[in-house]
Amino acid sequence: MADLVISYSLLYECSTQLKNLETQFANTSIWDSGIPTQSGTVDDSVFGDAGLGASVDNLFSQWAAPFGEAKSRMDQLSTAFAQLAHAWFDVDAQAASQVTAGEVMSAAKNYPAEWAAYEAALQQYNQNLADLKKNGESTTTYTQYVPDGHGGWIAETVPMPGPPTPPGATSTTPASGSYGPGTTTVTQNPDGSIASETTTVTGPDGLTYSETTTFGPSQGTDPSGNPIQDTTSVVHNSDGSSDTITVTENPNGNATMTDVNSDGTTTDYSRTGWNGTWVDTTPAKNPDNSPATQNPRGTGGHSPYLD
Fold first, then answer.
1. Is the pLDDT of residue 291 over 60?
2. Which stretches does the entry tag as region Disordered (predicted)?
3. Which of 16, 35, 137, 166 has its CA 20 to 30 A from that of 265?
4. HSE on the CB side for 296, CA within 13 Å?
5. Structural domain boundaries in the chain
6. Beta strands 255-261 and 153-159: pairing type?
7. What's phi and psi for 28, nearest 5 deg?
8. Where are the beta strands (DSSP E) in the chain?
């Protein structure tokens, strides 16, 4: 099976050239009433000879409809090419941005593996303290037995170890990086966890896609060891529209997602369990925008991110 290749550059260039040509047609008076001149339109009486005037007038009258139709068709074709260029570019740019962001965040702190390990160690530390308190034992010191050099053991009282150190809290981590067509910048909280990431993908002829994701506090880890965090993403699409996507995660794996597009369209999704599929739960609406009674269906919006 042959591969499908989409040239954003060619589509976008065709759209631009058609729009420029359509603008040139719009600036002329060929399809206006009368005969076009440098100073405006005139009627056939300026020629003096009625036969000559009628012939010239008939010539421009014959041109008017085809040029007007061409102008309309060029506008339609330009719009179609632009929509295709934006749509296909945004799909690839979204995938590229996820790869780029993942590379930078992994480089920043081997995210999320290091952070997941820290969360597990901190949980164990807190559990140990709780057990000591429950048994009435000290939480600041403990007894350690060391060899006395003569075959025996000596009891020593030593300080209790402190809590684990968050990854990245004392080490230098890259704040940005570039991979392929995309660049990503991350910000970190004082404890070293990722606070936000912004990724921009630039394509040919000025096509640009960007998204900024803000991460909420960790609620623990999922079965794969990844932090469970709510997120808010603001996506700027290449056609100038935008989406604000809010994801609410639950420790049991269930989640909801709401996508609000700049055109006012809101699309809702839900997921059951960690391996569940995102399901469109947007209530359907009648043509008059009132709630429909049929089964809920979505009405568009930005595609949900892959887990």
1. no
2. 161-307
3. 16
4. 10
5. 118-159
6. unpaired
7. -95, 170
8. 35-37, 40-42, 141-147, 153-159, 176-179, 182-188, 194-202, 208-215, 231-236, 242-249, 255-261, 266-271, 279-280
- Any idea what DSSP says for residue 240? S
Q: Are 299 and 285 in contact (CB under 8 A)?
A: yes
Q: What is the pLDDT of residue 297?
A: 32
pLDDT digits (tens, 9 = 90+) for 80-120: 888 887 787 888 888 877 777 766 666 665 666 677 788 88
CA dihedral 80, 84, 90, 91 (to 10 degrees): 140
| Tens digit of each residue's pLDDT (9 = 90 or more) over 237-277 | 988 999 999 999 999 999 999 999 999 999 999 999 999 99
Q: What are phi and psi of 300, to 5 degrees?
A: 110, -155
Residue with tokens 């976008």: 12
SS3 call for 255: strand
